[in-house]
Amino acid sequence: MRRTSVRAVGRPRHSRTASAVPSRAINPIHCIIATCLILLALNNFLQQSVFDGPTSGKVQDGQFLSGHAEWRPRDVNRYKSIRRSNAAENQKYQEIDTQSANRVPPKLAEIDLGNDEANRINGNLRRAGITIDADLEVKLPKWGEMTAIYGAQPVILGLDRCETFRANLQKNTDAMIGPAGLFNTGLNLFEQSLYLNCDIPGSSTPKKGKEHDAPWGKHTPASLRRHFDASAYEGVSHTDTLAVAVVKDPYSWMRSMCNRPYLASWAHSKSHCPNLVERTGGYPSPNNVRVSYNENMKTQHESLVALWNDWYGSYYAATWPRLLIRYEDLLFYPEYIITKVCQCAGGKIVHENFQFNSRRSQEDSSGMVNAILKYGHDGNRAVGFTDDDLSYSNANLRRDLMGAFNYTHPIDFRT
To answer: Sheet of 156-157: strands edge to edge?
Structure first.
């Protein structure tokens, strides 16, 4: 018997033609996956638009590889300008000054330290409450040995901008001093010396104007000023902060990085460090360095030498008020350096006698003594460097920076 199909009333049957496609319900899981993929692609695109990363496998010295999740952007519209300005600055930093690396920088007024040169280092140690016995007396560097490495006068760059900094303050009591510098550059020594000896009269800030960091981060590049707030300094004025960048002799600094690299990573070992270059196929090639300020923000550099060049080059080239001081001068001319920095920000020295440390502890004393022993002898600077490392450093450390800070290349005592 023939069956008759029954059709529901009101639901006409569609004829299946070549152009007709049967309707299907949208799977919500597929929709969620597609949305996630689109958002991920958009996020990657935005990060590449904001910060320059390596292209075609080539290292982009000093460029940001990604954004920093904990920092608040000051102006979203400036993101692209940050990228462009970083590229321009890096290009400028790569131009090597043809002047001698050992040229003498503009001198400050001569410092009257008395006629007893032989006892200047001893005098600082005694003022810090340190007893100098016969064994220590023999080990301490002579004043002439120290000045042969770092010059006979301290170096402070940027004092000509102090008046501009103070004039731009809405109130003198708003002034702040923000330490900055790469890892292993003596920032703790600077912060403690400043805290003990300098006062911003009537300061309205929670830390009385003596901050632990520059508000855009003490270890982060100068190009982030006015663009980002470090997580603990959200809303703190950048223009009311006098940034003071502490630099260390690059050879001593690289040796310190071997002992404690902090956020920097590169190929090296205890037996071979700083390991600036490796020979591949008979030719030396630089070991790239990556600095991970945060899991979402990294910079990449050709080598440790390039990291030093890039970081201090940005502060050196800055046109806004800032100071650059040497770590070594904090050891040998502490009172003079702290006084100049404090006065630049409109502050005053609070003690008639300079305070070297807050506690007369053996730990504090031994730290000061060890630092003078370590950085007062030229023979210590080349320890761990291979011939390739020394050649690479000599050729690639920026001559303008070496000259401005009155740093010299070490004498190799191994031969």
So the answer is: 156-157, 322-326, 241-247, 176-180
d(CA 16, CA 272): 76
10 Å CB burial of residue 36 (0-12, 13-18, 19+) is exposed
Handedness of CA 325, 328, 330, 334 (dihedral sign): negative
Judging by DSSP bridges, how do beta strands 63-64 and 289-294 pair with one another? unpaired
Q: How confident is the model at residue 304 (pLDDT cuts 50, 70, 90)?
A: very high
Mean pLDDT to the nearest integer, 390-404: 96
Q: Tell me how long the chain is.
A: 415
From 59, 57, 41, select the one nearest 49 (Cα to Cα). 41
Buried b (16+ CB within 10 A) or exposed e, 309-328: bbbbbbbbebebbbbbbbbb
Q: Are strands 283-286 and 241-247 parallel, antiparallel or unpaired?
A: unpaired
pTM of the model: 0.73
Pairwise CA distance, residues 67 & 375, whole Å:
37
More confident residue, 311 or 382: 311
Hey, what are 346's tokens?
Answer: 């409109």
